[in-house]
Specification:
The protein is an alpha/beta fold. The chain has two domains: about 230 residues, 3-Layer(aba) Sandwich (Rossmann fold); about 100 residues, no CATH class. It contains ten helices and eight strands. Helix 3 links the parallel strand 5 and strand 6. It is found in: Cytoplasm. Keywords: Aminopeptidase, Cytoplasm, Hydrolase, Protease. InterPro entries: AB_hydrolase_1, AB_hydrolase_fold, Peptidase_S33, Pro_iminopeptidase.
Length: about 325
């Protein structure tokens, strides 16, 4: 029976490691008036690994520390520019995002690596974090020991069409899409991303907050295979997330025109594990498959009973299995 296979498949799934607190943290001056919050937990002399959060603009959550054996790893986490505890926050509509691009984030990672006197580290990222991980590794392949990637996001035009046109994810989430679409007047719906940009970027809270809430409502609508309640976020966090996400989406992720797949030869030698949920509606598995076709040397897993969430049981299992196998 199918149910029997599902139940048997869940036996022996790896769980998150226990909660852990940082033993070191700070703010790193990365130039352009920006300071990036960073923290380190786990073994101070363990194997270095850097965690890259999603969004972009999502910021850190305590659970992100728990994908790694704290006795084996020196776990580095940071809030990317203008989100989380990094300063200044994009939750202030006066903060300009012109110095927040993928090359800036890659440079921030290098500054942080040098600040912490780390020679080489494992890179772990999901969703937008997978994008940044690929961009960083291609820019600095000699600094990466292994890669663990989840929910692959290539930021191709076809990927954005899936998210922001009525012929993509909207067909699977019609009520949520209708709410997202109907927050914009009929005459502007031919380009929803641009229409939202005008509103999210408006200095008036009466304009930008409703738009940011609607934008994030659609963003959170398809994160997991089974529905979960969206997180409760304050207005500043919602605006931060919406502004930064829109900023990157409307600029093609600030990636090279040829895209990330064109640079795979620079990282082909790096041991890597790629994991994607079969029913991931945010980053459908065709993106992970395209990466797999370009990089067959990387270990590849499609999780049959998972969506986009990194903590869904099957996805979590493969991620922790990978970090356990890459332990010293």
């Amino acid at each position: 029976m199918i149910v029997g296979r599902v139940l048997l498949g869940r036996m022996g799934l790896k769980e998150l490691y226990p909660p852990i607190e940082p033993h070191d943290s700070g703010l790193l001056d990365v130039g352009d008036g920006n300071e990036v919050y960073w923290e380190v937990c786990g073994n101070p002399v363990g194997k270095p690994v850097v965690f890259l959060h999603g969004g972009p603009g999502g910021g850190l959550l305590p659970g992100f520390r728990r994908f790694f054996d704290p006795a084996a790893y020196r776990v580095v986490l940071f809030d990317q520019r203008n989100c989380g505890r990094s300063r200044p926050s994009a939750g202030d509509p006066r903060v300009v995002l012109e110095h927040n691009t993928t090359p800036h984030l890659v440079a921030d990672m290098e500054r942080l690596r040098e600040q912490l006197a780390i020679d080489r580290w494992m890179v772990f990222g999901g969703s937008w974090g997978s994008t940044l991980a690929l961009a960083y590794a291609q820019a600095h392949p000699g600094r990466v020991t292994e890669m663990v990637l989840r929910g692959i996001y290539l930021v191709r035009p076809s990927d954005e069409s899936w998210s922001f046109t009525p012929t993509g994810a909207a067909r699977l989430f019609p009520a949520e899409w209708t709410a997202f679409r109907d927050a914009i007047p009929v005459g502007e719906r031919h380009d929803l991303v641009a229409a939202y940009g005008r509103r999210i970027g408006d200095p008036d809270p009466a304009v930008h907050l409703p738009a940011a809430r609607a934008w994030m409502g659609w963003e959170f609508s398809a994160n997991t295979l089974l529905p979960v309640d969206p997180p409760e976020l304050d207005d500043a966090t919602i605006l931060t997330f919406a502004r930064i996400t829109h900023h990157y989406i409307s600029n093609g992720g600030f990636l090279p025109e040829e895209g990330l797949l064109a640079g795979i030869d620079r990282i082909r030698h790096i041991p890597a594990v790629v994991v994607n949920g079969r029913y991931d509606m945010k980053t459908p598995p065709d993106q992970a498959w395209a990466l797999h076709q370009a990089w067959p040397e990387a270990e590849f897993h499609i999780v049959e009973d998972a969506g986009h969430g990194g903590s869904e049981p099957g996805t979590r299992h493969h991620l922790i299995d990978a970090t356990d196998r890459f332990r010293p």
